[in-house]
Amino acid sequence: MIRLKGLSKHYGNIKAVNRLNLSVSPGEIFGFIGPNGAGKTTTIRMMGGLLAPTEGSVIIGGVDMARRPEKAKKKIGLIPDQPFLYEKLTGMEFLQFTADLYGIKQDAFAEKAGKFLNMFSLFGRAHELIESYSHGMKQRLAISAALLHDPPVVIVDEPMVGLDPRGMKMVKDLFRTLAAQGTTIFMSTHTLKLAEDVCDRIGIINKGLLVATGTLTDLKHAADMGEVDLEQVFFQLTEEESAS
Amino acid sequence: MRQVVSLLRPRLWSFKNRGHAKKGGIRFFVFGGIGLFFWTGIFAVSYRVLVYFQRVEDIGDILAYKLLSMVLLTFFSLLIFSSILTALSKLYLSRDLSLVHSLPVPREKIFLAKWIESTLDSSWMVIVYTIPVFISYAIVYESGLFFYANIALALFPLCIIASALSALVVLAAVVILPASRIRSIFVFLGFAVFIILYVAFRLLRPERLVNPEACSSVLVYLRSLSAPASPLLPSTWAFDSLKAALSGDVRNSLFHAALSWSGAVFLAFVAVWAAKAVYFRGFSKTQAALARPFQTQSKGLNIFFSFLPGPARAVAIKEIKTFWRDQTQWSQIFLVGALIVIYIYNFSVLPLEKSPIQTAYLQNLLSFLNMALAAFVLTAVTARFAFPAVSIEGNSFWIVRSGPISIRAFLWIKLFIYLVPLLILSEILIVATNLLLHVTPLMMYLSVITVFLLTPGVVAMGIGLGAAYPDFTSENPAQSVTSFGGLMFMILSATYIGTVTILEAGPVYTVFMAGIRGHGLSYLQWAWVVGSFSVAFLLSILAIVLPMRFGRKRLLVSLI
Ligand SMILES: Nc1ncnc2c1ncn2[C@@H]1O[C@H](COP(=O)(O)OP(=O)(O)O)[C@@H](O)[C@H]1O
Ligand SMILES: [Mg+2]
């Protein structure tokens, strides 16, 4: 469903992402983990069509992002780490705006918007200005907006930042449900617990390089460690890289 | 097109939602009142000038048409000036771009939506404030209704052309210049704007209007006045259309308007086509931040500010560093520099010797006028740089608040940091223009001292009101100038400058006339001179203390 082929991004001399090869199959939850500055956000921005890769390509559901960006973007629900919301719109107006641009029909919109607003307990405040929302509410609104068009691929950058425990649980459950329905989820995070809990497969990125991919068991194996948790694997794999 | 409309919708909705806000009423009246005041003023002046021209035999019409073409050329260059800056920020720097570009919308449609927005933003003000000029033409020339319709018909394509040309310049600049050098894009654009303003100004040759003798004979003068402007200039198309409409020649007028419209449509298509090719590439490029800024000499700054206590020094150094690293500030400095050069240049070409009015008198009058003008330039610069100084702290303001430094000290440091360069700037400005005006030594001393007194007041008002009406969440704090507080600052500062100038001009005129007539001043006149200057001095002190106190109080309250 998602394929990254030799994806690179250079900022001047910095190789923020370095020849990334990856593929994620339908219905899979892929966890993309790495320390701060590893290149997660840069990768996600390229996948979302916000940044042109220096080299390589992003293919979403068989559509090349560089060649047919609109078609590829239609398949994606993107939730950035710092989502932009028009502060002077109401929550409902913001949803309407994104729905219009995804070409969602008006009657379908009313139903979907209601569903998500309810699910994220935003319904009562849907007609208030976004600037009066708390950080977590804004985050939940951004998630609703991204899922409104039933995308087959969901790409999330650091989904848990700013959410309270209830919000976190909601998001986790949501991801599981979506994946069970066949949605592919690509999620970057440095919350290892989250990756351990929900991800089918995990990729570890460090300094722009993908250092390992696989299921949790694969990774433990690769790190040559016995019964340990992801945290230790993470430190092992990213530190080795840093030392070399 | 549906998608383009959808993309423009948040702006409309935001506008509508803002309308519902509670305290909109007072602001609306203050803004509206001031706007109306300026509008009427422009109308009155242009009406009087036209009536005056009508009375001049033979060349009255020629002068009026010359003025019309100058107005249109100025209009056009102002439009280019403002739309280059708006296009750059709308197309590449606006914060909503990361959302919009992730939506499944073709890039050229994003461009189109942003470009339409930028066109409206950059032209409405210019249109609103030039319309009184055209209306006075309509009244003086007793033109029919067609002329009024023609105003819109001729001006809209001009706006579109200016905005499309600017968009093309911006699109090209962002792609051509290396990405790691966003700063050079700004310098490049600043330079482009400077050239445009300069060329436009030279094309106008305003000194010709003042000084007929520059031409060898009246005939040459007339010819130079009525010489048509280049037919390649879009403003000429609008001019021809309006001129024909003034004399009731509907067919000719429509022809030139059509020419203008076809140019506008063509350029809009070119811009969209260019955007399709390069807009995304440029957008992607502009996101790469400069990893390594200029190495500012921290050690040097540390030594320079060693007289300050620790926390104050830290704030001062931070202020200077972030200022130099903020690229938008750079471009603005460049533009301000360009405007000042043009301003000074204006004086150097004024043909004072040829004027029939008594020169010494005129020079004194001009130097007072110049003093006020220089102070207004200072106000504009302060509004742009010092007024947003508090807002610019944005989300980082908590560091200052939680640090071991009082708000009072914080504001005074800000004042000091902006005061030093602005003082130097305004003194240079006043001395240079006074030298060009050949003012008397008395006036030179007086202006230098007055500016020295005025500047701290103006900057303090900027900092104080900026602190009183801060906007930490703004997309672009520099834009807070157009807010309520910004407007208050402009009004207060203009009032202050006007009052001080008038307080000084009266007594100086008396002294001056007494000097010419050769007799001394009476006691009463002395008292007046001394009284006036003392009041001016007192005002200058109050202008520093009161705004700073007001700013601190309001800032403290707003932080609770
Ligand atoms: N706009 C940018 N300009 C220059 N360098 C950048 C930019 N964005 C990110 N980088 C650099 O690219 C690398 C990867 O950053 P990022 O993708 O944001 O990391 P992560 O999201 O994994 O924390 C970092 O070294 C960062 O400094
Ligand atoms: Mg990140």
What does this structure look like?
The complex is a heterodimer of chains A (244) and B (560). Chain A has 244 residues and is an alpha/beta fold. In chain A, 40% of the residues lie in helices and 25% in strands. Chain A has two domains: 1-75 and 152-162 and 180-244, 3-Layer(aba) Sandwich (Rossmann fold), CATH 3.40.50.300; 82-150, no CATH class. Chain A has helices spanning 40-47, 69-74, 91-102, 106-119, 135-147, 165-180, 192-198, 216-222, 230-243; strands at residues 2-11, 14-24, 29-33, 55-60, 63-64, 76-79, 153-157, 184-189, 201-206, 209-214. In chain A, the strands form two sheets. A six-stranded mixed beta sheet of chain A has the order 6-7-8-3-9-10, sandwiched between helices. In chain A, helix 3 packs parallel to helix 5. The radius of gyration of chain A is 18 Å and the shape is globular. Chain B has two domains: 24-293, no CATH class; 304-560, no CATH class. Helix content of chain B is 80%, strand content 0%. In chain B, 35% of the residues are buried. The mean pLDDT of chain B is 80. The interface between A and B is medium-sized, with 36 and 30 residues. The complex binds adenosine-5'-diphosphate and magnesium ion. Adenosine-5'-diphosphate (ADP) sits between chains A (11, 14, 16, 34, 36-42) and B (287-289, 291).
What's the helix-strand series of chain B? Answer: HHHHHHHHHHHHHHHHHHHH
| Biggest sheet record of chain A | 6 strands, mixed
**Global mean pLDDT of chain B:** 80
SSE order of chain A, one letter for each helix or strand: EEEHEEHEHHHEHEHEEHH
- The structural domain count of chain B equals 2
Radius of gyration of chain A: 18 Å
CATH-assigned homologous superfamily of the largest domain in chain A: P-loop containing nucleotide triphosphate hydrolases
The largest pleated sheet of chain B is described as:
none
Please state how the strands of the largest beta sheet of chain A are arranged side by side. Answer: 6-7-8-3-9-10
Helix content of chain A: 25-40%
Classification by helices and strands of chain B = mainly alpha
Proportion of beta-strand residues of chain A: 25-35%
Termini gap of chain A? 34 Å
- Low-pLDDT regions of chain B: none
Number of strands of chain B: 0
Enumerate how many helices of chain A there are, as a single number.
9
**Helix-strand category of chain A:** alpha/beta
